[in-house]
Automatic annotation (TrEMBL):
Protein name: Uncharacterized membrane protein HdeD (DUF308 family)
UniProt-listed Pfam families: DUF308
Domain of life per record: Bacteria
Naturally occurring in which organism (per UniProt): Paeniglutamicibacter kerguelensis
Keyword tags: Membrane, Transmembrane, Transmembrane helix
């Protein structure tokens, strides 16, 4: 979604696309943070809208590129983003639950592996207990997300919003830098 801003030739359309995408990311994050009684379905729907617009901007940039500068990764990014956005907007509850469960199962498995690894390393590494603590925390997170995915995603909204603000600011910076380079 956001990390696919591959710029080969700095052009004004590329700069403006990055600026629009960065502004959308920051706005989406602020909506999540300000709208205190937001539901998971509403967040996923808004995320779907954001992803759809982000994908449309990527596709627009790809179609506007000249034949020699068309980046196939930008085309793939646009298609995947549009499809993900449509899926999230059509089935917001299913999308949210699927994502949280994937993260939850990943954290469960990772936590168990960290615990086993820490216990196996206790004779070789003096700070093996750090892995034990990390594994326990990761395992607890995984259990929480698998057992109560609805409340799990609400707690993760702040993390998601923080990521979007940082990614949005980076795209804004990159967009303005690209505009300056294209004008020079």
């Amino acid at each position: 979604m956001l990390e696919g801003t591959i710029v080969v030739v700095p052009t004004k359309p590329t700069g403006w696309s990055l600026i629009l995408r960065g502004a959308l990311a920051v706005i989406f994050a602020l909506v999540i943070l300000i709208w205190s009684d937001i539901t998971v379905a509403a967040v996923v729907f808004i995320f779907g809208l954001f992803t759809l617009l982000d994908g449309a901007l990527s596709l627009g940039l790809w179609f506007a590129s000249s034949k020699g500068t068309k980046n196939p990764w930008l085309l793939a990014l646009g298609i995947v983003s549009v499809l993900a956005g449509l899926f999230a907007m059509i089935w917001p509850n299913k999308t949210a639950i699927i994502v949280v469960l994937i993260i939850g199962w990943w954290a469960l498995i990772l936590g168990v592996l960290q615990l086993v690894s820490a216990l196996a390393a206790r004779k070789m590494f003096p700070f093996w207990w750090v892995g034990l603590i990390s594994g326990g925390i990761t395992l607890a997170l995984g259990l929480w997300l698998v057992i109560a995915p609805g409340t799990g995603i609400l707690a993760m909204l702040v993390v998601i919003a923080t990521f979007l603000i940082l990614a949005g600011v980076a795209m804004l910076f990159e967009g303005f830098k690209t505009l300056r380079t294209a004008s020079a």
